[in-house]
Amino acid sequence: MKLLDTGSTIARGTNINSIVVPPELRVKHATGLPWVDALLGGGFTPSIAGMLTGDSGVGKSTMIRTIADALTLQGHIVLYNCLEESEYQVKMACERLELDAGFIIAHDLFVQDVISHARELQKKCKKGKKVFLFVDSLQCLDDGKYDTGKTTKATPINCAKELIKWAKETFGVLVWVHQVTKGGVFVGDNTVKHAVDLHLHFGFDKDKKSPSFGERILRKEKDRFGPAIDPQCIEMVDGGRLAVKVIEESEEDEDDMDEAAE
Question: At what angle do helices 87-97 and 60-73 cross, to 10 degrees?
Fold first, then answer.
C-alpha cells in the first residue's frame, strides 16, 4: 500500500542527469545539539518526515522537547502539538529541564487544525528559517472522518498522510512520536513506518554483552537524507536534562575485539 503520492512533476522517462534538485534540499538545519546534529549528518533536511520511537520511560517527550528548544534558539519556529500531556504539564517539565527558548505549544486533536496552525506560522517565519512541526503523538490525532470521534486502524495512516503532504509541499520539517509496545514492537500499520524519511529510536541497550548495557541509546534506524551514523549513548543529568555519555570499554571488551579481529 502506498501512503503518499508526492505529486512529482518530473516526466516519465526523464534522464536522472537532467533533474534539478530544489536548493532547499541541499541545506541542513542544525539543531545546535552536537549529538543530534552528528546523528543527522549535520541537521534536519527541509521536507523531511521523521518519526521518533522509544522504550517506555526512556524519555521520548524529553528528547523531542529538548530538540524543540534547541531549534528555537537557532531562530526557527517550532510548533509542538502535544496530546499526551496538558499544556501545564509540558510547561512544568520545561521548567524542570530549564528549556526556556519558547517554542509554540498546541493541543489540537484534528490533523487538519494542526496543519492549518503550521501554515499560519510559516507566514511569520524569517528568511532562511523553517517551521518544525513536532507531534506527540501520532496515535492521539484524529482525521475527522467520523463525527462521533470514532477512530480506526486507518486513522493514524490518514493523519500521517496529511502531515507528510504538508512537509513535502512546503519544505517544512515534520517529526512525530510513535508508540511502541513495552517490548519495543512498533504499534500500527507498517505503511506508516515505510512512509517516513527518518526514523530515530531512543531505547535502553538490552544486550548484556554490550559495554553500554542498560544505558539509553539514540540510534538512527533510517534516513533517506543522511549517511549511516553510529548510535549515541545518552544520559539524564541535572533534573532530567539529556547529554552524551562516553562509555569506556573494559580491558575484557578490548580483548574480545582483538580476538574477533584475529
Answer: 70
